[in-house]
Write a structure and sequence with these properties.
The structure is a homodimer of 140-residue chains. Chain A has 140 residues and is an alpha+beta fold. Helix content of chain A is 31%, strand content 34%. Chain A has three helices and six strands; from the N terminus they run H-H-E-E-H-E-E-E-E. In chain A, strands 2-1-6-5-4-3 form a six-stranded mixed beta sheet. The interface between A and B is medium-sized, with 34 and 34 residues.
């Protein structure tokens, strides 16, 4: 179980790094955390499927280059581990605002490191919770 | 590669069974295709996270019991295999209408059978394609 807890903690750290790169507009950090061998996938809110490294990272480059910084925060991240694949579910919101998106992030283990291979974010019909009421991210 | 193709075909069959159960309002078939050991997860369009067998299948029971039948069709399903976990991306639409939802379906291998453990569907900003123009589901 210690190994499983370590793996979950590593996945959550990569998930947190994703939102830090998003908020900082740091394309180099964003590129570094996506998988290199697995095929990359991404559904941005309302968008059609982006597929492959060029499409997925090209779209992130455009998003991160556009001012102002988005201050995209992750709430209630939960890791579900299945061998060398991890599914993270969470909510996303801008700064102090209540989360307005639901997200599924999928990570795979490559060369001993957890890397993102899929991001799917879509709108919540109503904000899930105010950040002040959001539970802290957990390993559940 | 034959084994991988077989696995992808099995995943696509389970994915198709999910949309058949959805369209037919068949809760028994729906229950039978979800995982029994893995924790179940579900984001319905606009909804907060449903978690665990009781919450996820309870919500499906309500959805499938509500007339009229939804005739939910799956378009452009693509399988991405990672060992005993498979990620399917697709679009969803009602009957002959253009797809209006993007979906991520996650399957895990349990007792030699692929079972659904996560469904995440969210609205497309504009219909992706008319069904007549949709590519057939593929093993890519």
């Amino acid at each position: 179980m210690a190994d499983e807890d370590d793996a979950k903690a590593s996945v959550l750290e990569t998930n947190a790094a994703f939102y830090r790169a998003f908020t900082r507009g740091d394309i180099a950090a964003m590129r570094a955390l996506w998988a290199e061998r697995a095929e990359l996938l991404c559904f941005h809110p309302g968008g059609s499927l982006l597929r492959g490294r060029a499409e997925v990272l090209g779209a992130w480059e455009q998003i991160l280059a556009a001012p102002p910084p988005l201050d995209m925060r992750c709430h209630e991240a939960q890791v579900h581990l299945h061998g060398e694949v991890a599914i993270v579910t969470c909510y996303e919101g801008n700064g102090a605002q209540a989360p307005h998106l639901a997200a599924t992030n999928v990570f795979v283990l490559e060369g001993g490191r957890w890397r993102m291979m899929h991001h799917h974010a879509g709108p919540l019909a109503q904000p899930a919770r105010g950040p002040a009421r959001a539970r802290p991210s957990s390993l559940n």
